[in-house]
Amino acid sequence: EQYEGLPVKKVGRFGTNSMNGGSLETLPALKLTAVYIPDTVEEIESRAFAGSGLTVVRLPSSLRIIGDSAFADTQLEEIVLPDSVTTIGSRVFSGCVFLEKIRWPKNLEQLGMDAVGDTAWLRAKPDGFVIANNILVTYKGELEDAALVIPDGVELIADFLFMRLAITSVTIPGSVKTIGNRSFFYCESLQTVSLSDGLVRICDSAFADCSSITAIELPETLEVIENGVFQGTALTSISLPAALKILGSNAFSGCASLTEVICNGSFTLGKHCFRNCSSLRSFRIPEGVTEIPENCFYGCSSLSSVTIPEGVTVIQTGAFIGCSSLEEIVLPSTLKSIRASVFGGAGLKRIVIPEGVTEIYGNALSNCGSLKEIVFPVSALPCVEILNKMSVDKVYFTGRIQTWQAGIPSGYTLPATVTLYFYVEDESTLPNDGGNYWHYGTYGEIVIW
Length: 449
Hints:
- Strands 14-15-17-19-21-22-24-26 form an 8-stranded mixed beta sheet, with no helix packed on it. The protein has a 7-stranded mixed beta sheet with strand order 4-5-3-7-9-11-13, with no helix packed on it. Strands 32-34-35-36-37-38 form a 6-stranded mixed beta sheet, with no helix packed on it.
- It is about 0% helix and about 25% strand.
- By secondary structure, it is mostly beta strands.
- The protein contains 2 helices and 38 strands.
């Protein structure tokens, strides 16, 4: 249970006899026939016992993760998987030709590709859906119908299960809680997907590159859309349910026909979430979001309206790169940081940087050829040199001339083509020096004194 005084948390691949970051990597495995793993172990890493002479294994109730091919090509005849196991990797028992009995866990959340290939357990099953303990483990034989109906009672669909198959429709019952990684990846003929209430999670790239899907209704119970789930589909619109908590990276990346996204609740956004959705016209970022992630709307060339809620503090690198139709945007008062290339190549004509922003990366507004006016806050004075990297004609500074002079670096000057205006709220305090001054009008418009 311990190695050099440390509790063993992982069992690594056999053959090196070393301790590495809490992972016990043990002696050469070819002669190994039995192993009893202590109750401290939470993970068995990829290929840990692969190719060994293992016939007996005792797994602890602490075990959560079994990595890819962990027991592949062993001599196991039976195995009891404890209910604590939530993740089983790909090909974990592949090639275990004598493995006849598998006791499956009750709380499994992920089952990898071809987990039981060429086992006696699988050979004994009839053709068709192979289901164990509400897990759709695999499909044996050739699919007879392009209209796929997942049997009722299934709760988990294994990873990669129907990838690249010539199915035209799939009906998934309400018993299914999780659709595994790449379950329907690259099913180019798939047009109709029927999902039911009860579904909680759609895993990585489950429907990615299903280029014939133009519409899908997401159930109200859906909480997680993982990375790349609908990447490269032909969706034209999507309504995201109120229960959604996580929208993963690249979730809709490359959906060139997507024109509308309706957000009905609050959730976190992943990187590249709507990258190259070139038909997307508008987007309302959900309440509760504090960060607009990297390249979130990269290449959304039709995007003309974005609503950013109060609470957002950071706009990450490249979030709006190439949004050539985005002529205006209102930034929240909570914003603190605008990272590199955020608005690179955007169609902005004027931008108001809110007071409180203290970090603006040098090329945050690069290649914005239409940008002629900027409201620049006192808080951003440490970043003033970015103004020399922009195409603006007018800079409306939110402070007095004395504040400007005290805050800019020694020797700094604006380009001769730029007119600088200083803020004066009340006409009675307007300096009589012939300088350039401005204030906000009744409706928030910029007014020159």
